[in-house]
Write a structure and sequence with these properties.
single chain; alpha+beta; Fructose-1,6-Bisphosphatase, Chain A, domain 1; D-Maltodextrin-Binding Protein, domain 2; 2 domains; 8-stranded mixed beta sheet; 5-stranded mixed beta sheet; 7 helices; 13 strands; globular; binds 2,5-anhydro-1,6-di-O-phosphono-D-mannitol; binds magnesium ion
């Protein structure tokens, strides 16, 4: 008999005792999220065929507008998750306001925040993209969730992770008890445990940053990036540069190989003084994952998970990855080193 592997649901059930999150309702939430991600994965795999299938115009043969893949991913996630019966509200990177659960569906007390298709500028060139998610429990006793219910510290997340649509589709997630990785076996349509108890190396070999922003960084950020390029660093040789431009893909590589991803603040665009990445749907969930894997994440001054959001789409500078590399960058950026 071949070894058929452990599915995500089996894994949750097996570890039920260690994880208070493995309740039936949480399992339902995760199963629904997985189902939506499988649909997104299927569409991502077909993305290159869009031209061949004739869906290039803005209007398709039914006279409907042809939706972009990121818009499609957003819609499918909202559509599936609103029916799950376990959420009280959602927020998406693509929607300005929170998304309430229509009255016709049952509600629960979980709050879901997601970036439906991170790295979407890479879709048309067949480069890895992903879906990032963050799960909180509603703490207020209001019957309807408000934006206030979303403005929480990352340390209060009950689960977080991402789906990576790459050569294989993967799910990496944590419920605060380590990080596990699952790979989609397309022949059976199940995510199977492929990377149990992921640990990031204490120091890495690569640094990931969009260096074209160099002119717009302040001197401390420039100094931090220089640190990873000079042979006079603690490693005794320059780190290798790796930058895909899909946060989820850059993060995933560094999670396994070790290293640091940086998206510092810059003065390129006065409307975005705190960098480009979003606290609630990008930085906080990935910071939960990285800390659970033994790494670290800061905004250059403080731990990302300690920051209490003040706005739904708040942006934050991000230094994330191997513990020692993030500590070094943070010490330089904060002026301690
Ligand atoms: P997106 O969520 O709209 O795709 O934007 C976020 C992306 C990240 O995936 C990536 O790290 C970053 O933007 C790249 O930005 P830049 O092109 O400025 O380097
Ligand atoms: Mg994104």
């Amino acid at each position: 008999m071949e070894n058929t592997g452990i599915t995500v649901t089996e894994h949750l059930l097996i570890h039920q005792k260690e994880s208070p999150m493995a309740t039936g309702r949480f399992t339902r939430l995760l199963s629904e999220l997985i189902f939506a991600a499988k649909i997104v994965s299927r569409e991502v795999n077909k993305a290159g065929l869009v031209d061949i299938l004739g869906l290039t115009g803005e209007i398709n043969v039914q006279g409907e507008e042809v939706k972009k893949l990121d818009d499609y991913a957003n819609r499918i996630l909202i559509y599936r998750m609103q029916q799950a019966g376990v959420l009280c509200a959602m927020a998406s990177e693509e929607n300005a306001d929170i998304i309430e659960i229509p009255d016709k569906y049952p509600k629960g007390d979980y709050i879901l925040v997601f970036d439906p298709l991170d790295g979407s500028s890479n879709i048309d060139v067949n480069v890895n993209i992903g879906t990032i998610f963050s799960i909180h429990r509603k703490t207020s006793d209001r019957s309807h969730a408000t934006v206030q219910d979303f403005l929480r510290k990352g340390s209060e997340q009950v689960a977080a992770g991402y789906f990576l649509y790459g050569p294989s589709t993967m799910l990496i997630y944590t419920t605060g008890n380590g990080v596990n990785g699952f790979t989609l076996d397309p022949s059976v349509g199940e995510f199977l445990l492929s990377h149990p108890d992921i640990r990031i190396p204490e120091t890495g070999q690569c640094y990931s940053v969009n260096e074209s922003n160099y002119t717009y960084w302040d001197d401390r950020v420039k100094k931090a990036v220089e640190y990873f390029k000079t042979p006079e660093n603690d490693r005794g040789k320059p780190y290798t540069a790796r930058y895909i431009g899909s946060l989820v893909a850059d993060f995933h590589r560094n999670l396994f190989r070790g290293g640091i991803f940086m998206y510092p603040a810059d003065n390129k665009d006065p409307s975005k003084p705190r960098g480009k990445l979003r606290l609630l749907c990008e930085a906080a969930p990935l910071s939960f994952v990285i800390e659970q894997a033994g790494g670290a994440a800061t905004d250059g001054q403080q731990r990302i998970l300690d920051i209490e959001a003040t706005q739904l789409h708040e942006r934050v500078p991000l230094f994330i990855g191997s513990k020692k590399d993030v500590e070094k960058a943070t010490a330089i950026v904060s002026g301690e080193a």
